[in-house]
């Protein structure tokens, strides 16, 4: 049986003024025990998305065992694989 998290956080890049603020939010969530974090970015080009995703993974997992936080890429299976995310979210219309 799969164990679902109590809180599944979605970090939408459009709500953060820069990558630093996005990473800071992810660090706080991971440090508080959030076990699933989804990175969502609908407006940047794929290179920027991957760069942010990689920074997000490295910084958020610093000091937190990797098994305790799972990172999900929104809509982009290619970037999920390239960034070594734990999974990809695919919507009903995708």
Task: Summarize the structure in words.
It is a single chain. The chain is an alpha/beta fold and 94 residues long. 37% of the residues lie in helices and 19% in strands. It has a four-stranded parallel sheet. Helix 1 (19-31) packs parallel to helix 2. The model has no long low-confidence stretch (mean pLDDT 85).
Give the topology.
Layout: E1 8-12, H1 19-31, E2 36-40, H2 46-61, E3 70-74, H3 77-82, E4 87-89
Parallel strand pairs: 1-2, 2-3, 3-4
3D shape: globular
Share in β-strands: 15-25%
Give the beta-strand count. 4
Order of helices and strands: EHEHEHE
- What class, by secondary structure content? alpha/beta
In round numbers, the mean pLDDT is 85
Number of helices: 3
List its traits:
94 residues, alpha/beta
Nutshell version of this structure?
The protein is of the alpha/beta class. The chain contains three helices and four strands.
